Amino acid sequence: MHLHNEANMCTLIVLKDVFEKYPLVVASNRDENPKRPSAPPLFWFDDPEIYAPRDLVRGGTWIGVNRQGVIAALTNLDTVAHRRGCKSRGQLLVEMLDLGAADQVDRLLAGDIDNVGEFGSTREPYNLPVEYNGLNLVVADSECCTLLVNDGNSTKITRLGSGAHIITGYGVGPDHAPRASEITRRLRDIKDPSPEGLDKLLNFHADGRPEAAACVHDPNEYHKTISSMIVRADRNWTRFETWFRAGPACSGPFDERFDVEFRKNGSES
Question: CA of 69: how far to CAs of 45, 140, 143, 206, in Å?
Fold first, then answer.
């Protein structure tokens, strides 16, 4: 059974109705082998409604948004033994974005609808514990924020309420791991959901306690923080404001800013 070191786990912070002007804020660090190639966020040529960074090994992503106003983000669940030959978790996230509504996740998994929202799908129901390695997956829009957890034995779907939700490869909650506890402590001082303010939750090292650090540095260069992304939904839920940084979270400010405007009533503009 292979489990990752506790320091080497991705970080996902979901802030729902925490800030008055921004009903949803998501901040993410990707901890990965730095030799694994990826692309910065763009609208995808083969799925042009999606704006996301891309894993160039398996073609999926770990965080992304679409022009229907849906955001999805995931972490691996590192308490579950990794199995070879499973389907791509990043591709599962893409299927959730293609679904177009966060409250339809459970119906999609049950096989009631397919991944473009059409009724009468012939796809068999998903069996996440068999088909995929462990994961925490959040899918959210203006109506709903859904957390899907595959722990290797079963799949649990939860609607997340207002508040701060700290998610890592070791679980979900304010104190489930040293890193989560440190983020929870630092979050109390964040009054401004600016990228500079939110970055304080992503770029710290927790000197002497690598298991509590959000920015991971592996002396063997096998697994470390290789990118960060922040997404904010505006008050009227008309656009996502995004910031992206390639490289360690401590390497400097976010260097890419882009706003994803939502389509209105099916408009193509």
Answer: 19, 8, 10, 35
Half-sphere exposure of 216 (CA within 13 A, CB side): 29
Classified by CATH at the fold level, domain 11-261 comes out as Penicillin V Acylase; Chain A (3.60.60)
Question: Would you say residue 1 has pLDDT above 80?
Answer: no
CA-CA distance, 239 to 250, in Å (whole number)?
28
What does the alpha-carbon distance between residue 265 and residue 151 come to, in Å, rounded to a whole number?
Answer: 38
140-192 pLDDT tens trace: 999 999 999 999 999 999 999 999 999 999 999 999 999 999 999 999 999 98
> Phi/psi of residue 77, each to 5°?
-105, 100
| Residue 20 burial by Cβ neighbours in a 10 Å radius (0-12, 13-18, 19+) | exposed
Three-state DSSP at 60 gives: coil
* Amino acid type, 104: Q
Question: How far apart are alpha carbons 255 and 165 in whole angstroms?
Answer: 26
Instruction: Encode pLDDT of 97-115 as tens digits.
Output: 998 889 888 888 877 755 4
